[in-house]
Amino acid sequence: MESVGIFLNELNKQNNREFDLKNSLENKSNSLITISGIVIPLLFAFGIFVIEKIDRNYSLFIVAVGLLSLIIILNVIAIIFAVLSAKIRNYEYPFLHFNFYDVTNKININAIKEYTDSEPDKFNELLIEDYLSCNKFNYEINQKKANYIKIGQLIFTISLVLVPILIIILFSFPPHLNSLRE
C-alpha cells in the first residue's frame, strides 16, 4: 500500500510539472509574438526608407529589397508558429467536476459512488489510470507546443541574422540616395 501512495504522489507531481511546462510554453510563445510584433513595423519602416530613398539603379537594389522582404516574411512566419503554439488546447485532469454531473446538470450520485464506495485498491487503480491517461495526453500537447515554438524561434533567429547581412551589404556597397527633400 505504501508503494501505491508513493506512485500516486509521483503521478501527481508529473501532472503538476506538465501544467507548469504548459504555462512556461505559453509565456515563450507570447514573448515570441510580442518581439516579432515589434520587429516587423521597424522592418517595414526600414523597407519604406530603402524603397523610397535608394536609387533604383543601385546595382544591389533588388538584392536589398528581396532580402528585406525575406526578413519580413520570416518574421510573419515566426508569428504564425508562435500563434499555433499558443492556440488554446484542452488539457486533461484526473478529476473533472463535470464528470460528477448528469446531462440535466444534477449531481450524479452513481459517478461519485464509483469512487467513494470502491475498495481502496480499486480507488487507487482508478486514480492511477486517470493520472496516467492525463499525463500522457498533456505531455503530447506540450510537445506539440514546444515544437511550434522551436520552429518559430529558429525562423525568427534566421531573420535576425539576415538583418546585419543586409546592413553590411548596404554599408559595404553604399547606394546613391535620392534627395531627402523629395
Number of helices: 4
Q: Give the CA-based shape.
A: rod-shaped
The gyration radius over C-alpha positions equals 27 Å
Mean pLDDT: 87
Order of helices and strands: HHHH
For the secondary structure, the number of strands is 0
> Strand percentage, roughly?
under 5%
Helix content: over 70%
Major pleated sheet:
none
Low-confidence stretches: none
Distance between the terminal alpha carbons, to the nearest Å?
Answer: 84 Å
Which structural class should the secondary elements be placed in? mainly alpha
Give a verbal description of the structure.
The protein is an all-alpha fold and 182 residues long. Helices cover 76% and strands 0% of the residues. It has helices spanning 2-53, 61-86, 109-116, 120-172. Helix 1 (2-53) packs parallel to helix 4 and helix 2 runs antiparallel to helix 4 (120-172). It starts with a helix and ends in a 10-residue tail after the last helix. The model has no long low-confidence stretch (mean pLDDT 87).
Summarize the structure in short:
This protein is mainly α. Helices cover 76% and strands 0% of the residues.
Descriptors:
rod-shaped; mainly alpha; 182 residues
